[in-house]
Amino acid sequence: MDGLEKLIDLMPQFLSDTGKTFYIVGLSMIFGGIGGLIIGTTLYVTRSGGVLANRAVQAIAGFVVNFFRPIPFLIFIAVAQPLARAIVGTGIGDEAAIVAISVAASFGIGRIVEQNLVSVDPGVIEAARAMGAGPWRIIRTVILPEAFGPLILGYTFATIAVIDMSAVAGFIGSGGLGNFAIVYGYRQYNDWATWAAVLIIVIIVSIVQALGNAWSRKVMRR
C-alpha cells in the first residue's frame, strides 16, 4: 500500500486530529488571550506616567515576562508539566498541552498587548483625566478601545503562533495535526500524511490571517 492509500485509510483520524487542533488552539487562545491581556495592560498602566503607575509592580511583571518568554516552547512543555499535573491531573495529552500553551502564550501576548497600548495617543488619556475619569474607567473606556484595531492584529499573530505551538505539543502525546504528522507521517515514513497535515495548517493560518486583517481594517476605519 503506497502513501496516498494509507492517507485515505487514515482520513477519519486525520479529520479527528484537525478538530483537535481547533479545540486546543481555541481554548489556549481563550485562556492565554485573557492572561496576556491582563499582563500587557498591567505592564502598560503601571509604567512611569501610567494611569496606575507603580514601579514595583511594573518591575516584577516585567521580570516574570522576560524570564519565561524566551524559553523555547519545546523546553517550556517540560517545565510546565508539574503545573499541568496540578491543574488537570496529567502532564501529557490535550489538557496538559492546553495548560502549557496557555501559559506560554500569555507571556508573549502580554508583550504584544503592551506594545499596542503604547500606541494610544497620550492626549486622549489626558483628556479623559481632565474630565474626571478614574484609572479603571480610563482603561476600560479609553485605552483598550483606542488600541482595539492594533490589538486584533496582535492577537491574529498570537493565534498563528499558538497553532505552531499546538503542532509542537504532539511531542507530549497531544492530539492534533502536529501529532498526526509525527505519528503517521514522520514515524511511518509517509510523506503524504506529513504534507497533508502541513497543507491544512497552512490553510488554517492563511484563513486566520485574512480574517484578522479584514476585521482590523474594519475597526480602524471607524
UniProtKB/TrEMBL annotation:
Gene3D superfamilies: MetI-like (1.10.3720.10). GO terms for biological process: D-methionine transmembrane transport. One of its GO terms (cellular component) is plasma membrane. It is a multi-pass membrane protein. It holds the Pfam family BPD_transp_1. PROSITE patterns: ABC_TM1 (PS50928). InterPro entries: AA_ABC_Transporter_Permease (IPR051322), MetI-like (IPR000515), MetI-like_sf (IPR035906). It is found in: Cell membrane. The chain crosses the membrane at residues 21-45, 57-79, 147-172, 192-212. Residues 18-213 form the ABC transmembrane type-1 domain. Keywords: Cell membrane, Membrane, Transmembrane, Transmembrane helix, Transport. The keyword Thylakoid does not apply. Belongs to the binding-protein-dependent transport system permease family. This is Methionine ABC transporter permease protein. It comes from Agrococcus casei LMG 22410.
